[in-house]
Amino acid sequence: MRPALAGERAHRARAMLADCRLCAHDCGVNRLAGETGLCHAGAGTRFFSAQAEVSDELELIPTFAVAFSGCDLRCDFCITGAESWNSRAGLGFDAAAMAARAKVALENGARTIMVLGGEPTIHLPAALEFVSLVPATARLIWKTNAHGTAPARALLDGMFDVWLADFKFGNDDCAQRLAKVPNYVCVVRENLLWAREHSELIVRHLLMPGHVECCWRPVAEWLSEYLPGVKLNLRAGFWPAWQARRHGELQKSLSVKEVDAAFGLAHELGLDLIP
User: How many Å apart are CA 218 and CA 206, to the nearest integer?
Assistant: First the structure.
């Protein structure tokens, strides 16, 4: 059922590239004609990594992770910024060849298959074609920045078993300054609420120096009120990657005081922390 439906939706998703509104930037460019929007992706898809990974959530690993090139956000602290920002990085994506690699990985002990980026939403036609070719019994993970649109979500409905979604910023000012994205909080909240109703949801938040109160606290309080019981991976491994040094507060690591305060708040609110 899922493979056939995914194949059908892949064709629909590709047609949508003629007026691309897959992410919340809502550019409306004709990617099939060579136009590009804020993500700079065209009609084709490239990937910069495809391998077994063991650094994700314990319940998901080992996973065979396929990372598409290009992203609709511009997070200055992105640890894969060179590839995530560049839709032309890596190799051309062949869904059939990648599905064959995924099948071998499953046979060799991978528990899940993960589609990520960059951001996979901007490559929805390729992602859905890939889903149509992997084993129907595979446990599929959609690793996303949760900046997609309602039309994109409609195509994703029922395609992935788990949404692994980032909630990066607790306010729009930080999102605009650090990732060059407007109206961030409203968009992400909408996507997370939808994901909770249509799949299993795991939320990630990367703690950043100087952003415990402005970003983590509002995220934590919202999750506690609107997504009680949701699984949360609170990550404290920030380091000043890519272009983080553009921002004074991101030129250092988290302090012990910040980490203790962040996890203290999570416990106080009764959030379901997972490793």
Answer: 13
> CA neighbours within 13 Å on the CB side: how many for 12?
14
Residue with tokens 């990974």: 53
Query: What is the DSSP track for 122-155?
Result: GGHHHHHHHHHHS-TTS-EEEEE-S-B-HHHHHH
Strands 46-53 and 91-92: what pairing? Answer: antiparallel
Q: Label the pairing between strands 46-53 and 63-68.
A: antiparallel
User: Is the N-terminal amide bond of 90 cis, ω within 30° of 0?
Assistant: no
The answer to whether domain 2-273 has CATH 3.20.20.70 is yes
Q: Which one, of 160, 164, 165, lies nearest residue 146 by Cα?
A: 165
Q: Where are the domains of the chain?
A: 2-273
Helix 124-133, helix 95-107: angle, nearest 10 = 50
The torsion angle over the Cα atoms of residues 140, 146, 149 and 155, rounded to 10 degrees, is: 0
Q: How far apart are CA 8 and CA 199, in angstroms?
A: 20
Beta carbons within 8 Å of 226's beta carbon, 6+ residues apart: 189, 193
In 10 A of CB 115, how many CB atoms?
A: 30
Query: What are 32-71's pLDDT values in tens digits?
Result: 999 999 999 999 999 999 999 999 999 999 999 999 999 9
pLDDT bucket at 181, cuts 50 / 70 / 90:
very high
- Cβ proximity of 203 and 167 under 8 Å: yes
Nearest to 182 by CA among 26, 68, 21, 78: 26
